[in-house]
User: Fold these one by one.
Assistant:
Number 1:
Amino acid sequence: MGGAMKLLLPAVLVAIWQYVSAWSPLAPGLVHALPPPSAVVRDAWTLLLNGELPQDAGISALRLLAGFVAAAVVAVPLGFGVALWPLFDDVVDPIVEYLRPIPPPAWIPLGILWFGVGDVQNVFILALGVFFPAILNTIEGVRRVDRTLIAAVLTLGGGPADVIREIVIPAALPLVITGLRIGLGVGWGALIAAELLAARSGLGFMVQSARFAFDTPRMLTGMIAIGLLGLAMDVLMRAVQRHWLNWSLATP
Amino acid sequence: MASLDINDVTKFYALRDGQRFEALGCVNLSIGEGEFVSIVGPSGCGKSSLLRIVAGLEEPSGGEVVFDGIAVAGPSSRRGMVFQEYALPPWKTVAQNVELGLKFRGVPPKERAQIAQRYITLVGLQGFEHRYPRELSGGMRQRCALARTLANDPDLLLMDEPFAAVDAQTREILQEELLKIWGGHLTPQRRKMVLFVTHSIDEAIFLSDRVVVMSSRPGIIKEVFTNPLPRPRADESRSSPVFLEARDHLWGQLKSETLKAISQAVED
């Protein structure tokens, strides 16, 4: 019942859209600006069958994976370093603080200059989007570790390596994963921006090329695919969070 | 056999304005084999600092702690500690928590599990081995922390207001259980040394052989009171004339210090 209610409003909106764009007196003027959902679905179906949509979506997803992994393997260990060693903090923190306020899309022109149009540039922009939320949340996660837990490990005979392995890493993990999840969202947005401006494939490119071809259904199909992929990633990250962090969700 | 000597230990912290914050004056105390010693004192008198110094978690500014003839230079599993906040990693189950010290000391997994089970049973947590701390009451969490420390078989048990966070009834039950586990009925040779920090005079009298009264900040030892309450102790001990007399005496010693500590807190 609850599920059905949640679908009610979107269904009504789609129905109104279909009516306005296909059957109302306004319909002829909307052929290019807002084609009806039926036309979008028809187009999406064609693009799905001829392989164009899966190909562009696959390319964007692969870029996402590459950039996400690259950013994560740098940001998370660096975040631990910054939080654990003051020297690291003094060196890295100012850089992070100055670069963080520059939104990833602002890097696109420089990225094109450095890496040209295509995969490397796209992945670079995406990785920037993932990097900052990931490192900042990791630092915060490590800093918030309960000192008493560390004292407990030391009085139980544990050494520094035990403190890191048994306490610091698991204690920081919830915020590390939160940072990666936020970074994935930011990075996805950054990637699409990069693909809109400087790519020869991917969902962003598909939307942009559809605009040049006045192919609005294709544009909308691309937008919907971007939204669905973003949603799928977030659901996946939430599942990872639930699976790994079941202790933090246990109720008395 | 194990012995503990606290020799001329002082502790101060450097404040930002260059001034010193004196936490501990000059403390001298020796604890003998199998002895249960409590430290009572007003808030901020440095009793927890003293315990952390004995544990090796903090360095004294002056003086030294000698344990078994060797100056303490850092934490050791031979000086086990139980914390007021339980200090149980919430991502570890009861069994994993109790096994932690054994794991650090390289005990093989199978043996580890057996030893842990023995101490889990000792503190009455059997059936809760796979629960997470969040799923336990405060009293059960502290039982788990106690089992974890005892599983390491330390020579000295340091307890920092371990029962301060549980309700009054649970607290009395935990005190009795602690005495039972410690071996209030055994000969001193078979008991562990315990250094127990508390706010509560009643708790100190019920548990200890000697009660150390500390002054307000900077903390120094005002009196070392030898507790005449006979062992083994039970609920009835709490209302015995000896108990009440000891309480009157200690409260007399502590009251003026507590008043001083209150006015200090207002100044700060």
Number 2:
Amino acid sequence: MKNFTGNLLFLDRSDINTDEIIPAKYLTENFKEALRPHLLEDLKIAGFESGRDVKDKQAIISRANFGCGSSREHAPWALEVNGINIVIAENFARIFRQNMFNCGMLAVELPAADINDIFLTFAPGPARLTLDFAADCLTLQGAGAEKKYAYSIAAFDKSLVEAGGWVDYADKKY
Amino acid sequence: MGKTTAQKIFEAHVVDRPFEDVQVLKLDRVFCHEITTPIAINDLIARGRDKVFDASKLKVVIDHVSPAKDSNTALQGKILRDWARRHNIKDFFDIGANGVCHAIFPEKGFVRPGFTVIMGDSHTCTHGAFGAFAAGVGTTDLEVGILKGVCAFRTPKTLRVIITGRLQPGVFAKDVILALIAKIGVNGATDKVIEFHGPVIDGFSMESRMTLCNMAVEAGGTSGICMPDMRTVDYLWPFISGEFSSKEAALAEYSRWEADPGALYDGTVELEVSQLEPVMTIGYKPDQIKTVREMKGTPVDQVYIGSCTNGRYEDLKEAAAIVKGKRINPSLRAVLAPATSAVFQKALDEGLIKTFLDAGFCVTNPTCGACLGMSNGVLAEGEVCASTSNRNFNGRMGKGGMVHLVSPATAAATAIAGHIENSPLFQG
């Protein structure tokens, strides 16, 4: 299984789309590593600078409809090559969410109230996330606070994370 | 209990239910293009699994950057081309015979009512216009689809959308779908199939139904679906005439995919369109719209007519009727990218290409190109484009560029006026 522990990047906006996560002009790259410097480079949020703020982060928290738009798996790959294997949001666009689990990464949905609470308590960081995968629970530490949040993911998605992705799972089974 | 079209298609294709709420479906079609497929191919090779489940069910095209613009895109084309040849995939469309995937594959008759279709492209939902379940997927799902011919989906929920009333002249499928997205929001149909019903849809051509279903994903929808009817049969007839004794027999067969009258929906949205005016997007999300009338006079640097949404012959014809005998305003430039080689050829034969050239349009080869800021009409920082495509995300057509999504008629009228303008077809 991948690593789901680390420093949290706060992206306080809904509808962050895949063009913002990795612009289409980089889809001509034939290797994932080439995406690394370009993660979130077109994202415009007041105070956010991708080059500075992505560095040394291992998790992202955002609002609703994260990953909408294109089907490009380059979006999770761009996160993965930057060492970010988990995104927490109120909800996700279907294809992005599936792409995350298909890569053995985690797209964790939390109720809007919990997301609000995390932003209020811990933003803008520094904040650290630890995850108890077996117990479906995440812990946040920062700003002198520590809080736990229970989440639920579908059994199928959980098994993909355990299997390390959909190709291995499907190749064995079908 | 009645069933939705998606429920019927799932029932007919399910091969496994590994968990509650997850169904693994057998695929009738796996479509491939050169942007999302090469990494899947390379991964299969790396795993020692360079196989395809059924070459006759794979349909392959080079469309996003056509012809190649640099070494990277040339390599993507080469990986796809070599793979198609290696596996004897007959339906591979290289430059010169190609087209934007969601325009060329329907044109070739590859989609039938009741089919399951995946592609590594979010606008795969377009093919639901034929009464199929067609979903965009990522490269991993595509890779498994290529190797195993299956894909996993959550059991579908369906949003029923009923379009009522009568469209005014100059108002088109593009205006209807933009109005719907504005009504339900950019995640109003997330994890749902949108089933389109009502007299307006019944009256739409297959091209207009494709425009409608194409943008289902802009509301988060998994697939758009229109009910198969005689118009579907008429469109497909050149490809299916050997399979059926008559069009009526084909319709009788395809009608089994129609949603049952008592089907259970996850929601119903009604949109009355008699008063609908031509609309356009104004921000960076497809649900932010205003009427063209309200936005009249907005400066534009480029007009773009093309894409999987509105680059088909019907779209070119609508635009050409407005452009004919006129010149584009010298304050802007205009690009026309017919969606397929066949569309280009027909537009040439019917004199449309001459109309556009005489008006001062730059006519390019078929490609996705400018729609996603890849090639053939990329915007500079601060520039504005009135485009018949489907996404107005910040920087979509070029970093720092702004996109207003419009119908082909509005795009053509805007090109002539030099700023956002309603087409003369609209008299409201």
